[in-house]
């Protein structure tokens, strides 16, 4: 199972313009979906993605697109693990966001990999053993 971060999905669903180059992780996501590999989206990623739209039409379109990705909902244990990740990173001199720590905790608990284009996750790897999908 691969968890997908907001950074990849926002690029994947962005309307293409001449200036918007596709990031490599979008190609990986497209391959995973084409191969029918198990791809899930943390609930908080779904919320982040839907929170960034401007019109109700865009919201509905994006919501429909996201229906194809099963959500992974956070538990109490995920939140506790996220706090531990945050504390470990802070001790290591790494500033992290609460949401990124929760996504990392959910990935670790699922014994999975995270598909992301957000370099902040790379900084977390040495502090808790987060595995990123390359």
Structural notes for this entry:
With 134 residues, this protein is of the alpha/beta class. It has a domain at 2-72: Rossmann fold (3-Layer(aba) Sandwich), CATH 3.40.50.1010. It contains 7 helices and 4 strands, in the order E-H-H-E-H-H-E-H-H-E-H. The chain has helices at residues 6-12, 24-34, 43-51, 56-66, 76-91, 98-109, 119-128; strands spanning 2-4, 39-42, 71-72, 113-115. Strands 3-2-1-4 form a 4-stranded parallel sheet, sandwiched between helices. Helix 3 (43-51) runs antiparallel to helix 4. The mean pLDDT is 91.
Give the structure's gist in a few sentences.
The chain is about 55% helix and about 10% strand.
* Helicity, as a percent range: 55-70%
Counting DSSP H or I runs of 4 or more residues, the number of helices is 7
- Pairing-aware structural class of the strands and helices? alpha/beta
Annotated CATH topology of the domain at 2-72: Rossmann fold
Name of the CATH superfamily of the domain at 2-72? 5'-nuclease
Judging by the overall fold, what is the CATH architecture of the domain at 2-72? 3-Layer(aba) Sandwich
Task: Tell me about the largest β-sheet.
Answer: 4 strands, parallel
């Amino acid at each position: 199972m691969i968890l997908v971060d907001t950074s990849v999905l926002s690029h994947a669903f962005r309307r293409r313009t001449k200036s918007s180059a596709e990031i490599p992780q979008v190609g990986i996501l497209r391959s995973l979906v084409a191969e029918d590999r198990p791809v899930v989206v943390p609930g908080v990623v779904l919320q982040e993605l839907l929170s960034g739209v401007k019109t109700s039409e865009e919201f509905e379109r994006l919501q429909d697109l996201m229906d194809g990705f099963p959500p992974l909902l956070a538990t109490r244990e995920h939140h506790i693990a996220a706090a531990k990740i945050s504390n470990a990173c802070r001790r290591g001199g790494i500033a992290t966001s609460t949401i990124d720590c929760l996504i990392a905790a959910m990935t670790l608990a699922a014994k999975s990999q995270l598909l992301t284009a957000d370099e902040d996750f790379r900084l977390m790897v040495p502090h808790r053993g987060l595995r990123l999908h390359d």
